[in-house]
Amino acid sequence: LYQDDTFGRAGYRGVMRALERRGLKPAGTGVYPRNTTAVKTALLDLRSANPGAVVLVGAYRPVAAFIAWARHIGFDPVFMTISFVGSNALRRELGSGGAGVFVTQVVPFPTADRPPVLKAYRRALARHAKGGQPGFVSLEGYLAGRLAIAALRDCGPQPDRACFLDRLRRKKEIDLDGFKLRFGASDNQGSDSVFLTVIDRDGRYRPVETLRDSAAQ
Q: Model's pTM, two decimal places?
């Protein structure tokens, strides 16, 4: 399932490439209009294809509406969405119906012990945002800040844009206390890592390594 816009189509193409690398084809595809929760037609299309899993690329409200309606009509494959959805917003929108839904993340689990940068992040959070709770969004922001500082330090007392970009591209690896980033002339992504999480029955996220490790607790 994907929303009918540039972002949604990019997500769809990414899923298709991943399937092709594994010699697989999608059982079916569903599309819904951007900025709506008009997902019922897509739901019926996908239900008729009887897939074992549905990858959802979209904002949290239509994704939550799709999952809720699907379970209401007895269609309950593995549901998996991506961090763009807004993990906490999705969890709140789904309520008790969120158990077993997977969300991929672009950062490690915020309360984990490794890599060591996670402990540094939590110390900074406690010091500068008293009462703030560790989360995926603030962790991503912290890592982005650490990355910027690492590049700017190499530029000396008068940094500029050209120097900043040059330092990022020249470094083979930037190690942020165990979280490693790599850039290049044609690679602005930094990290290709994906971290899998699942919503448990208590509505909280927990990290999982594989789908086999995913039974809701």
A: 0.87
